[in-house]
Amino acid sequence: MSRFFTLALAAVLLCLGGATQGQGHAAHWIFGNGFHLEFNDAGPTVLPGVEDYFSQEGGSCISDKEGNLLYYSNDVKIWNRNFLPLFNSDTFPALDVPPSSSKANGSLFLRWPGDSSGRYAAFLAMNDADDKVYLSKIDRLLAGGLGGKVDSFRYESVWDEPVAEQLNAVMHMPMAEIGGL
Q: What is the pTM of this model?
């Protein structure tokens, strides 16, 4: 993504301030060369850039239900809310996409299904080497509350077959939450 496009997107999002609201789990967006936006009740806010972050194609973030940043990824590495590498997450070198790659890999952070405590998160990532989706479980209590990958559930293959070179998702919400649409 070009620097111009990233700055233009940030400007558009800032102009939409009156139409936005706090988004809980999706409150933080980190993308491009470390551009960082936070969506809150006052609208989008530009935060200081994130150092040592570059995402050529995909990236992902997740916040807690109050909108506090938990984790973010550029599809190669994962960081915690203190902008430090996530505990137990350094063993998937196939995600290290070369700069010449045209693959639109991706990653997603999701709440772990069935976990009403908010303790666990799911991290899904595309592997550039085999086009498969891999799933890891993150426990927020590891590393003194900064979180980390659970040893017994790290980079588990979701399907045995390649799926594609891209990862996309849609969050489904109850009709009451989206104004009856």
A: 0.75
